[in-house]
Amino acid sequence: MHFGQSLIDALSLGALYALVALGIGLVFGVMRLANFAHGEIITGAAYALIFTWHLGPVVSVFVSLLVGVVLAILMELLVFRRLRTTTPATLLIASFGLSFLLQRVYEALFGTNVRTAPVASGLAGTVTVLGLRLQILSLVTIALTAVLLLAVHYFLTRTNLGLQVRAASTDFRTARLLGVRADRVIMLTFGISGGLAAVVAFVMTVQTGAVGPTFGVPLTVLALVGAVIGGIDRVIGSLVGGFLMGFASSFFSSWLPEGIVRFRDAFVFLLVILVLLVKPAGLLAGSGTVERT
Amino acid sequence: MSDLPGKVAATTPTQTPLLDVRDLEVRYSGVPAVKGVSFHVDRGETVGLIGPNGAGKSSTVLALAGAVRASSGSATLDGVELTGHSPEEVVRLGLSLVPEGRNMFDGLTVTENLRLGAVARRSEVPLTAAIAEVVELFPILGEFRDRPAGLLSGGQQQQLAIARTLLAAPRMLILDEPSLGLSPTAVDVVFDALGRIRDAGTSVLVVEQRAEFTIAFCDRTHVLHDGRLTLALTPGAAHDADLLTKAYFGS
Ligand SMILES: Nc1ncnc2c1ncn2[C@@H]1O[C@H](COP(=O)(O)OP(=O)(O)OP(=O)(O)O)[C@@H](O)[C@H]1O
Ligand SMILES: [Mg+2]
Predict the structure, then answer these.
(1) What is the ipTM metric for this complex?
(2) TM spans, by residue (chain B) (predicted)?
(3) CATH number, domain B7-243
(4) Which protein residues have their CB within 5 A of the ion that is ligand 2?
């Protein structure tokens, strides 16, 4: 494969993973929760696209976004809010449980087989730019990610609520003593992460056209690992780590020799282990403390 | 303040203290740290709270600020019950705590820290004017407005911690060991500012370890010992060695 093409593919997969990791990292910042059930938000939003696509793209994308945001906020309201004062380990286990539970719920509602719909199939084609045959979806993914990153950056650095999210991520107790409303900030953060999950669901659904109960799982696992190697306690760490995971897997897929490419994930995780041996807290680790009580 | 002076005079509790703490108790996993503390702070008054390490000073003020739960007792601000409220609600009711240890958001700039302090602002005065006012109180903050808080010295951080809290426009300002770990000059700067805050009419409760200094600074100073108030001292007692010894080692 041409190097330029595989570079664009890797950039786009990196961007996709970065979006997943960003959603996970934002929530981790305010909650010290590595939300495993983020994958089920992606799955839910993806089902929404499949089932509503016949209503037209605008309606369908809107419904999907809504499902992502509402699912994320419901998780916070019904599960995580009650566990806020517990240890990060409890939160992690709870999110595991929630993840499996939702997978079973999807199974019961929509069956174990994948559901299909030609979601934005026009984006699945290719264009030729400067002699490179590029997937339109890859370009769209990169552009979408760039826009969303700028938007999140603007929100975090330029708005009052974003400032509150950053403060809460650094030291929740002090933020509350200054009047930052914990419930509001956490709910907002879950909502943003749900919206990001819906965008990821869109890209994934266009790519595969098929959604099953565990649709969001592989992506979430890799992005979570990425967030950890990047340094999950800082948003930028999650982002870079997630990007590197996607970028590396895509590159390994394109360039590992024929007989070895099926061990791609082994290579990715070898890289992960090497990073963690050198920088156990992650590449860009910070030193935040959080207390939510 | 009101166009119905006659009626309001009867209902406004100007006679009752601004902050009224009664039989306050705090327990950590059942173990009592504050064992029934009662005191009050009048409007415009500056009250000190001193006592040895582990006496329960921080627990007391954290309970007032809503950051730890009071297991029993009550605390009212202008007649409004504070216990049972979250910290963010207590700030909105008009009581703000500058907690022990400064607690900077290292990555946020001085200006961002100040903006955070205004999240629960209770005043109609425009924020820019209020910021100008605290910068006048702590000029160094104006000079370093774009500097990350993590790069400030301990004294500058304490100034920022107080300044951002003032932006909420509290009626009752509580400071937990504002002099902790500061150089003597930095302590002077901080207490000079506290003096001016007091003179501007804000009621202040200041927790300290340094007895003499605090007793001299405050209108009244309570001694907390093993979760109980043992003595109340007025500035005249600042140099009474006997009383000070009693205060620290119990009578
Ligand atoms: N979060 C907590 N969990 C359990 N015990 C605590 C906690 N915080 C304080 N304590 C205990 O409560 C008692 C009172 O502590 P507190 O911090 O209120 O004292 P203090 O007077 O502020 O002391 P210092 O001068 O050292 O700041 C101590 O015995 C302390 O060990
Ligand atoms: Mg203390």
Answers:
(1) 0.90
(2) none
(3) 3.40.50.300
(4) B 58, 100
